[in-house]
Amino acid sequence: MNEVGTEIAAAKEAVTRAVGELGPKLVNIAKQIHQNPELNFEERFASALLASTAGEAGFAVEHPVADIETAFRATYRGARATPTVAFLAEYDALPGVGHACGHNLIGTASLGAALGLAAGVPALPGTVQLIGTPAEEGGGGKILLVDRGVFQDVDAALMFHPANTTELWKHALASRIVRIEFFGKAAHAASAPEEGVNALDATIQTFNGINALRQHVKSSARMHGIITHGGEAPNVVPDYSASLFYVRALDDAYCEKVAERVTACAEGAAAATGAGVKVTTEGVYRTLKTNMTLSEAFQGNLEARGWRFDETQPFVDIGSSDVGNVSHVAPSIHPYLRIGPNSLLFHSAAFAEAANSKRGYDAMLDAAVALAHTALDFLLDSKLQDRVKAEFAAEVG
Fold first, then answer.
1. Boundary-marking domain end, from 285, 309, 329
2. Which of 191, 243, 293, 381 gets the highest tally of CB atoms within 10 A of its CB?
């Protein structure tokens, strides 16, 4: 083993001990977050708990950050300022089913990785950040943080996700959130319906148009929506109606094209019914560009803890994540660790239960160690840094 390898091995041993000593505290934090589920941009308890714990460990904490109440950044600077490795902490829950995506494990694993590095190797050749990223579930918190410059000095971004398999990477679909509102004219639905302009009819026509459109888009594209407002009473012609759609695709340009066609469906419905229409596109989720050089370093570190990876199925069980936006501005990894059987479904009550199980917490702690070890590989090995940066430049430019 060369001098760099010896240095990395000794540092990893120190970090492993540090995370091990923190283990009971980390499990308690994850349990507290699980027991206090908070929806997107409302994660006051979770963000305060994670940020204050980092502050107690000597990190410089900005809370809030980027004008987002429940976002934070905790920074530990070692022997020199660069490079900078960021661990991404998610902690929002889902309506009705709580932590059915395991974000209590994600946020706490990233906390454990950051604290383990700082405690195990105080004189790190670089900077460690723990970035609290709220509202992954539909709010796009990382999108706002990217747009507001929080990641501009980050050289590598790392996180893990609990799952029903252990996989190094998956695709994440580009996504657009499309809000559609129609404005009609109210009238008595029995005595004078001809005087009204039915906004709900326009919404229904939009759904029909989108359903017809499904045959003429790529099979990997997704369009799914709900009616959020359909009127006030059956005997009043609805003068206002609204719907919310998610539009997804495997690449950013095609997602934008499909979103434009969804907008055209709404405009056609407006023309057919005489209603006014307003279409608002927001939450521009980008595709995930996994840095495979960095991911392979994580693979080696997790396998060293006795884990084995399943065969990667990049098109199975995929959705969209705002970590995709991060991956376009910094080399990023987003591996998956199994916390239950293959039958375990994301966003289900069973997944929420698994996120509060011994198996889930064991995976969280192993993820914290493997993430910290991967950060050490990056910080201490200049050749690895060069390969990571070269791959990122080739993929993203």
1. 285
2. 243
Which CATH number belongs to the domain containing residue 73 in this structure? 3.40.630.10
CATH of the domain at 254: 3.30.70.360
Band of pLDDT at residue 210, cut at 50, 70 and 90: very high
Mean pLDDT of 42-59: 98
Range of the domain at 332: 3-172+288-395
Q: Which residue has the tokens 């056609």?
A: 268
